[in-house]
Write a structure and sequence with these properties.
Layout lengths: L1 H15 L3 H15 L4 H16 L2 H7 L7 H6 L5 H5 L3 H17 L5 E2 L5 E2 L13 H4 L5 E2 L2 E2 L6 H13 L4 H11 L3 H13 L1
Antiparallel strand pairs: 1-2, 3-4
Length: 199
Amino acid sequence: RRAAAHLDSLGRLLAVAGWPAEAVTARRIRDDLLDRAPAEAVLPRTLRLQRRVGRSRTLDRLTRGIGTLSTADARAAGVSGPAARAGGDVPARYRRWLADAVDDVRRLDDVRRLDDGALLEPTAPGPMASPAPTALLDPTAQESPRGRWDAGRPPSVALVGLLPRLLEGTELAAARLVVAGLDPDPDELGASKREFAGG
């Protein structure tokens, strides 16, 4: 699911950047991942997307130097995940999404041991064919697509907190790319506001 989320973020960025064909490709791979396609069916297409988008000179020129965020500044602002690990501008972040998506797809068919010693085997293909073990659904156990999950402060809250500084003095077109390059999740922000209002 994390690979699907990275490809979803990438698809939004590519649409904002004016590359609808590759945005559709990213979304189709995302849909296949959500339908639990095996790694062997998805990995070649994900690698092709990584090469095509990652090496695009046009996309690099369009996004280079905007929304620059060092790893140290990201961590100081409470940001984790791809935005912090990328340590750079919008191209650094979309290349990080691509690399993380490829890594996650490569691990799709892994058989691993859970903490209780039980084997976790790949699930059968098909939408919602077999539910994932509860251990894998614990948001604090693994990094979510936008960073380490904290019930009191979802990762998108920290991403949105960066926007005033990153958007200062940018033109509208560049501002749209900066926001798409961070891709804060409105659902996380809404959940955070509800928890604050309820608490």
